[in-house]
Request: fold
Amino acid sequence: IISFIVLGLFGIGYNRAAKNHQALLALQANAKKLSSDEKLEHTGEKGINTAKEEKKFSATKSALDQASRDSTGPQAAAAHAMSAFLEKARVPMVNFAKVSEPMKPLVRLDMSQVEQQEKLQTRMQTVKKFLAANDNLIAFIKDSEFALRKELVDAQLPQKDINFMVEGYRKTTTEQNNLALRMREEDKNIGNALTGALVLLDANWGKWKYSPAEKAVHFDDRTTGNSFLAYIAVMDAAFKEQSKLQHQLGALAKK
Reply:
């Protein structure tokens, strides 16, 4: 987002005043540092970490707020608008990160600690929260261009500059957002399949056993067992597809 706003402000020409020019150079330096940190993070890391997401949002918003304070006129308004847009993005992103973390042990379907049926209900609630957060994030990504335009309009920027910034956002984020949406669709597949597996375990309580040695659930009824394996197959396929998409996202981050 910072890289995008730097390009946008340079393109519009808001940096003509000496004070604004210095503020924009400082913002550009922040963009390079954050971009470098992002590239390092994508090297070998998998999954989402809430603390890191919060830290990235905080650092980015701090840089934008500083640019707004150090600038004047439309440049200050544009930086403020981008900071407000970032705050809108932070809510669904960080919430998704938070509900994703307790999902990590659940997808392994390790039933070694499930001695009471109530524990299955607790796990189903965890998955339900994950799916809801995932849907909210999908909705924001799809609506992000409209959200950005609204902040720029509220900042009372000239219409030609609003169009310039929105078009720049579209060009720089379309590929990344499309990949992100595909990953979120795979998360939906994982969540739905995991829900199906947990419902099956709940409905057949007392008719299955978990083997710690094999790390597998064995049902008394073969047909039910096959249905359970089908849910696992859906999750496995989704994880493989997500791995491919993650590599593509990582490649984009390193550009």
Observations:
- The longest helix spans residues 159-203.
- The beta strands are 208-211, 216-219.
